[in-house]
Amino acid sequence: MSSYPSRAIQIDQNGGPEQLKLVNVTVGEPGPGEIRIRHHAVGLNFIDVYQRSGLYAMPMPLRLGMEAAGVVEAVGSGVTHLKVGDRAAYASQPPGSYCDLRVLPAKCVCKLPDAISFETGAAMMLKGLTAQYLLKRTQPQGGLQAGDFVLFHAAAGGVGLIACQWAKAMGLQLIGTAGSDAKCALAKAHGAAYVINYATEDFLTRVKEITAGRGVKAVYDSVGKDTWDKSLDCLAPFGLMASFGNASGPVAPFSPAILGPKGSLYVTRQTLFTHIATRESTQAMADDLFAVVTSGQVRIRIDQRYRLEDVQQAHRDLEARKTTGCTILTL
Ligand code: NDP
Predict the structure, then answer these.
(1) Which ligand 1 atom sits nearest the alpha carbon of residue 156?
(2) Is the CB of 51 under 6 A from ligand 1?
(3) Is the pLDDT of residue 1 over 80?
(4) Per DSSP, what are the bridge partners of residue 305?
(5) What strand order describes the sheet that includes 266-269?
(6) Per the CATH hierarchy, to which homologous superfamily does domain 4-126+273-330 belong?
(7) Could you confirm whether the keyword Metal-binding appears in this record (predicted)?
């Protein structure tokens, strides 16, 4: 069986960015249901930090990365939606996208429209599909209608800037939080109806002011520990708390009994990988994403580029809240 050389980023144990090591590996032929893809660009995501640090336990050694774009180099038996030479992009489970070349299950890989560059494809698949499932598939009872208020934390980040634009296209009034005035200005420029600098302002007070005391229909919270309690209090009766991350640390255990007096609230903890578990739903969500990107309703903003060998610095900057929009690794 042939083997092909690739560089990859691997950790042998959990820890800080210094654990990220560049290793030389070999890649084989795809098995049934798999493809081999040669990457042109790789996306960086906050989930990579959780997997590196150990917040999300993973078997070791671990090749990190869950997003990339490139050209299909080989196709295993049973794969019908991709062929050799196709431009393609993906958000993948299992991880392993920080590399030149890899074999992975074809069901998570989509053909990339000609109008979308490799860099954009690499930056947007995991983050864009996340914004898609949050805004379109994770709605409060009765759904979201034009004019409704939603609160979206970390609105100037990778997922955040996509969500700001997409929410605006849906007619929603997205209230975005971010950790500096410059980040707030960025979120506003990308479609947030209102912005709150949660480093200097009390976001609960501001949300109540903005909504004339009524609260928001949904909160999309990826910050976790630091924002959880006040986020619940931002909700209107029957509102939906959609937790989807823990950038500040995991949410402490709580009793469901608190949700009644706060207005019969709904709480859900979502992960993209349930939504993209099948090829059909992955493609349907990706088609929706490709449509808003090719129409120009959502622009994918790549604010940071690092070489693969500089991935340690990329992780440091992401964790230190120095990044905005999307970050990619170049090859
Ligand atoms: P971002 O680019 O949004 O970076 C994370 C942001 O979180 C930071 O820029 C920072 O923005 C904010 N933040 C708040 N508190 C902290 C803290 N203590 N340390 C570090 N950052 C903090 O990352 P992504 O776009 O990759 O992901 C956004 C979030 O969504 C992450 O939490 C991620 O895990 C989650 N996610 C969840 C998915 C799911 O399906 N469950 C899928 C994809 C992403 P600021 O300075 O403005 O506060």
Answers:
(1) 47
(2) no
(3) no
(4) 328
(5) 194-197, 173-178, 149-152, 216-221, 235-243, 266-269
(6) Medium-chain alcohol dehydrogenases, catalytic domain (3.90.180.10)
(7) no
- Please indicate whether residue 297, judged by its CB atom, sits closer than 6 Å to ligand 1: no
Q: How far apart are CA 243 and CA 168, in angstroms?
A: 21
Mean pLDDT of all residues in 137-153? 98
pLDDT digits (tens, 9 = 90+) for 64-94: 999 999 999 999 999 999 999 999 999 998 9
Whether the CB of 223 sits within 6 Å of ligand 1: yes
Kindly state the tokens that stand for 94.
């299992």
Domain 139-269, second-level architecture: 3-Layer(aba) Sandwich (3.40)
- Contact, 132 vs 102, CB < 8 A? no
pLDDT in tens, 239-267: 999 999 999 999 999 999 999 999 999 99
Q: How far, in Å, from the CA of 318 to the mean position of ligand 1? A: 9
Query: Per residue in 5-44, pLDDT tens?
Result: 999 999 999 999 999 999 999 999 999 999 999 999 999 9
**The dihedral sign for the CA sequence 305, 306, 312, 317:** negative
Question: What average pLDDT does the segment 150-179 reach?
Answer: 99
Q: Where are the domains of the chain?
A: 4-126+273-330, 139-269
Name the residue at shortest CA distance from atom 46 of ligand 1. Answer: 179
pTM of the model as a whole: 0.99
Query: Phi-psi bin for 142: left (phi > 0), alpha (psi -120 to 50), beta?
Result: left
State the distance from the centre of ligand 1 to the C-alpha of 295, rounded, in angstroms: 26
Alpha carbon of 230 to ligand 1 centroid (Å): 18
Answer whether 245 contacts ligand 1 (Cβ < 6 A).
yes
**Token pair of 239, please?**
């509102």
Q: Ligand 1, atom 13: nearest CA belongs to which residue? A: 247
Q: Is 139-269 the same fold as 4-126+273-330? A: no
First to last CA, the chain: 26
Residues 6+ apart with CB under 8 A from 327: 43, 44, 123, 158, 302, 303, 304, 305, 306, 314, 317, 318
